[in-house]
Design goal:
The chain has 240 residues and is mainly beta. The chain has helices at residues 4-14, 77-80, and strands at 27-36, 40-41, 44-45, 52-61, 66-74, 87-100, 103-113, 125-134, 137-144, 158-169, 172-182, 191-201, 206-214, 231-239. The longest helix has 11 residues, at 4-14.
């Protein structure tokens, strides 16, 4: 599920114009690790409102714009749903570039894998996505090619994501987001989510804080916890 690390990568693509004159190597590899106070994906907690450990690796072929990567996070919702997995494993690849000055695109395929999740239908999900950006702003649409995260007959569900990551100076970035998840044939579980946050680059690590929330109370965890409730999230991330 799309995450603070990936959002930071998107921001780097959109704001790369300032570094356009620097020669990049043809092949780039990077690694990332983070700790988050609550892993929210599209506004819904994946960890029962508890912290998570996350990490991943990315490869980019700069001349062509093709990229591939993988990312993992600890989770709790599979076991809460009666399954047997405590890890989310994402595998993705695509192509990004610039159409004209300041107008960017990003298209790709993303697989959410929950090893041995043992849910029926399976929680494993494949989405195709497309994104357009202008400066720090973007609009993105993700379309499910399979059932969506274990919802029955939910193929062709979609998520619309609009936002901006605006550099405000002194290493601070303002993060703005609004999204709408449509769950095919399960309208009660369709909802809207939002985020207002800031990210600070300290050089050694990057720290983030954000207010997030949704307009749904239909995603409920153990003890009746509302997994989409409004909350303040914090994270610390490191890219190598």
């Amino acid at each position: 599920m799309k995450k603070l690390i990936l959002a930071s990568a998107v921001f780097a693509v959109f704001c790369g114009g300032a570094q356009a004159e620097e020669k990049k190597p043809d092949n780039e590899f990077s690694f990332n690790a983070s700790v988050v106070s609550d892993y929210r994906y599209r506004g819904i907690s994946q960890t029962r409102l508890k912290p998570a450990l996350q990490g991943g690796a990315d490869y980019t072929h700069n001349p062509s714009g093709f990229y591939a990567g993988t990312w993992l996070s600890t989770i709790k919702w599979i076991k809460d749903a009666g399954g047997d997995s405590d890890v989310e494993w994402d595998i993705y690849g695509g192509k990004r570039g610039e159409i004209v000055k300041d107008v960017t695109y990003d298209v790709g395929l993303l697989r959410y894998q929950y090893p041995s999740n043992n849910l029926n239908p399976s929680a494993n999900t494949t989405e195709v996505y497309g994104q357009l950006g202008y400066g720090p702003a973007y609009v993105k649409y993700s379309h499910a090619l399979t059932n969506l995260f274990g919802f029955t007959d939910s193929k062709r569900s979609g998520y619309l994501d609009v936002g901006a990551n605006v550099e405000v100076g002194q290493g601070l970035t303002l993060n703005l987001h609004a999204g709408h998840q449509k769950v095919k044939n399960s309208s009660a579980f369709s909802y809207t989510d939002w985020k207002v946050g800031v990210t600070k680059d300290f050089g050694i690590v990057t720290a983030s804080a954000a207010l997030v929330g949704t307009n749904t109370d239909n995603y409920v965890g153990p003890g009746g916890k509302n997994l989409g409730k409004n909350a303040l999230l914090v994270s610390v991330a490191k890219t190598f």
